[in-house]
């Protein structure tokens, strides 16, 4: 058996742990049915409402802390939160469950008669709770916290909490039952005192608990939110309220800054880190902000997938995108944000990670997939992309890679428009299609002698056809434009041109089991494929697998090297650690230090060069 209070008793329940709230819900439902109205005089109801508000407090602070377009310059620890930390903190709300259950037992126990009366407001209780917090909760937590950092107590009960390298609001709830009980005592002592004195009230419970959570989330947010000017104007203030920088120093160094919220007790105990205020000033002024080496310029796919952003819900962004019914009620909110972005937003930072000392960021153009096909929107979208490139150039970014529709041939010639308009760009503009082509080509089995290619005259289709015909593989190119087909065929070596064959109907591929899809296929079009066909894809969005007797490949993608750091969100439908091939192409461009742009048509001769460079740097096929 493990140490007592070192593990959660409901750890094996998974998501079923929320059934622990069942008795509270049942009691409220019973009272509602009995009285015919919402039982506002029931503590069970108020505890459930408080649970919702507490969860919302943690979620809002989490969202704010991950809104890099607001907070990037004031992040205390520059590292990112990786998947390991996310998984470790997945059940951060165990603390909230425990506190809710304890509160329910107290509220329904005859041993605490003072709690039975539900008074809405009593100013005496607020004053008494403040006094008890300062004189009881703060010093008690300080000494308990110091004790947890000594000897076996740390390894048994507190090391798990400190295993998170980067604090975030959800880290505030991550720990063992013993730590949760200490926090429960800290938040509960002032309330117990107020109710024992007959001055407790419902408003005090809501206000005190939510303020407690607010300050905890603020401290763990990893974003400096208190101006250093406030401390300069009122020096005594620094002993009355801690800061995210103050707590981050404790979390990293573990031998200082033990207080709950008031550094006064660290001062009295001689445990204040002398760098607390100097570092807080540096962070507040954005002095340790860093220019990214590489930027992946993405765009939003649709309204539903927009809720997959890292500053939304961690349980969504840290897993491959899928439609979740639980998020459908938020669709109107997401739609409203889409409208606001159309009129007011500009390119913003979404996520980041580090690779071999280089900072890689993902920026997003505030446009959605369908908007790229509105003729009147073309100019505005290109202007957004152009401004992002110029911003990256001004900052000193080395490589910027264009995602999906941002490099659409009809939109800007695969990025050629921007390089032509700004010939003196220092940032290298990359469409990443060379590596995309390489990924698709290396998926094709070596024994294949014939392929069927749709989207055959696109940039990628052209490159794939020219590469395969050199390998003496017959390519059935689906296109109704004989002119475009002949233009591509003439680019092939004379001895390979006969391997390129124009077809105008899907029926021509009835005996071909290797389909390379660059154009969306309907169920009717897919039915022409013979049983056992494998569909390779470079179409966005990917086709839907209607055929059970066929197999479907994912979009071209590569897994980032194992030494990537701080990666904690999935790129659309990609698995963890996997990025789209055009993203990976920009990464390779940056790691290799190539000084040329990669825009417009794909250089077929460079496909193998880019592929070998990707493998050399540890990127692997997904």
Automatic annotation (TrEMBL):
Q: Where is the Very-long-chain aldehyde decarbonylase CER1-like C-terminal domain?
A: 451-621
Instruction: Note one Pfam family from the annotation.
Output: FA_hydroxylase
Q: Reaction catalysed by this chain?
A: a long-chain fatty aldehyde + 2 NADPH + O2 + H(+) = a long-chain alkane + formate + 2 NADP(+) + H2O
Membrane topology listed for this record: Multi-pass membrane protein
Major localisation: endoplasmic reticulum
**Lineage of the source organism?**
Eukaryota, Viridiplantae, Streptophyta, Embryophyta, Tracheophyta
The UniProt GO MF terms for this protein read: aldehyde oxygenase (deformylating) activity
Reported EC number(s) for this entry are 4.1.99.5
Keyword Kinase attributed: no
State the species of origin. Answer: Urochloa decumbens
- GO BP terms: response to stress
Task: Identify the domain of life.
Answer: Eukaryota
Ordered alphabetically, the record's keywords are: Endoplasmic reticulum, Lyase, Membrane, NADP, Transmembrane, Transmembrane helix
Similarity comment: family membership: Belongs to the sterol desaturase family.
- What residue stretches are annotated with the Fatty acid hydroxylase domain? 131-271
Q: Where does the signal sequence lie?
A: none
**What is this protein identified as?**
aldehyde oxygenase (deformylating)
Name its cellular compartments.
Endoplasmic reticulum membrane
**Keyword Transmembrane part of the UniProt annotation:** yes
- Cellular-component GO terms for this entry: endoplasmic reticulum membrane
For this UniProt entry, which segments traverse the membrane? 45-64, 325-344
């Amino acid at each position: 058996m493990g140490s007592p209070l070192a593990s959660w008793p409901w750890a094996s329940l998974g998501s079923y742990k929320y059934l622990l709230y069942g008795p509270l819900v049942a009691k409220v439902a019973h009272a509602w049915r009995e009285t015919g109205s919402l039982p506002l005089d029931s503590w069970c109801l108020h505890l459930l409402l408080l649970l919702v508000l507490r969860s919302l407090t943690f979620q809002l602070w989490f969202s704010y802390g991950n809104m890099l377009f607001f907070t990037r310059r004031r992040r205390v620890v520059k590292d990112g939160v990786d998947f390991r930390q996310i998984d470790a903190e997945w059940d951060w709300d165990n603390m909230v469950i425990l506190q809710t259950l304890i509160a329910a037992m107290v509220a329904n126990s005859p041993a605490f008669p003072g709690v039975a009366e539900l008074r809405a407001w009593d100013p005496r209780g607020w004053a008494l709770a403040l006094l008890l917090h300062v004189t009881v909760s703060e010093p008690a937590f300080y000494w308990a916290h110091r004790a947890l950092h000594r000897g076996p107590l740390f390894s048994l009960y507190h090391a798990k909490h400190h295993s998170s390298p980067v604090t975030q609001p959800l880290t505030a709830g991550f720990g063992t039952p013993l730590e949760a009980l200490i926090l429960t005592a800290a938040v509960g002592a002032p309330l117990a005192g107020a109710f024992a004195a007959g001055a407790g009230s419902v408003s005090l419970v809501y206000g005190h608990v939510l303020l407690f959570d607010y300050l905890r989330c603020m401290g763990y947010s990893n974003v400096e939110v208190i101006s250093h000017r406030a401390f300069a104007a009122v020096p005594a203030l620094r002993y009355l309220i801690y800061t995210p920088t103050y707590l981050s120093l404790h979390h990293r160094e573990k031998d200082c800054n033990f207080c709950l919220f008031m550094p006064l007790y660290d001062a009295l105990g001689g445990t204040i880190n002398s760098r607390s205020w100097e570092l807080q000033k540096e962070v507040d002024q954005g002095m340790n902000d860093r220019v990214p080496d590489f930027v992946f310029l993405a765009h939003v796919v649709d309204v539903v997938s927009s809720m997959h952003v890292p500053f939304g819900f961690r349980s969504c962004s840290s897993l491959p995108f899928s439609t979740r019914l639980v998020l459908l009620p938020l669709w109107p909110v997401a739609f409203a944000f889409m409208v606001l972005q159309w009129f007011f937003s500009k390119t913003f930072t979404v996520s980041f990670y580090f690779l071999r000392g280089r900072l890689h960021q993902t920026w997003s153009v505030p446009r959605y997939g369908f908007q790229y096909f509105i003729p009147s929107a073309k100019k505005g979208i290109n202007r957004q992309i152009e401004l992002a490139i110029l911003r990256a150039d001004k900052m000193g970014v080395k490589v910027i890679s264009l995602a999906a529709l941002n490099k659409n041939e009809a939109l800007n010639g695969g990025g050629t428009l921007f390089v032509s308009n700004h010939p003196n760009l220092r940032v290298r503009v990359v469409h990443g299609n060379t590596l995309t082509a390489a990924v698709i080509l290396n998926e094709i089995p070596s024994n294949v002698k014939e392929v069927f290619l749709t989207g055959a005259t696109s940039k990628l289709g052209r490159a794939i056809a020219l590469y395969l015909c050199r390998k003496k593989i017959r390519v059935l190119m689906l296109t109704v434009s004989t002119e475009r087909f002949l233009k591509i065929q003439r680019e092939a070596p004379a001895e390979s041109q006969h391997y390129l064959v124009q077809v105008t109907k899907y029926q021509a591929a009835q005996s071909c089991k290797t389909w390379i899809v660059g154009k969306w296929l309907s169920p009717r079009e897919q039915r022409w494929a013979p049983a056992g066909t494998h569909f390779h894809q470079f179409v966005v969005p990917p086709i839907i697998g209607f055929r059970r007797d066929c197999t479907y490949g994912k979009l071209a993608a590569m897994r980032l090297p194992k030494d990537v750091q701080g990666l904690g969100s999935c790129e659309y439908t990609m698995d963890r650690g996997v990025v789209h091939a055009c993203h990976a192409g920009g990464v390779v461009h940056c790691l290799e230090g190539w000084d040329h742009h990669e825009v417009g048509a794909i250089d077929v001769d460079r496909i193998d060069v880019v592929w070998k460079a990707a493998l050399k740097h540890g990127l692997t096929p997904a």
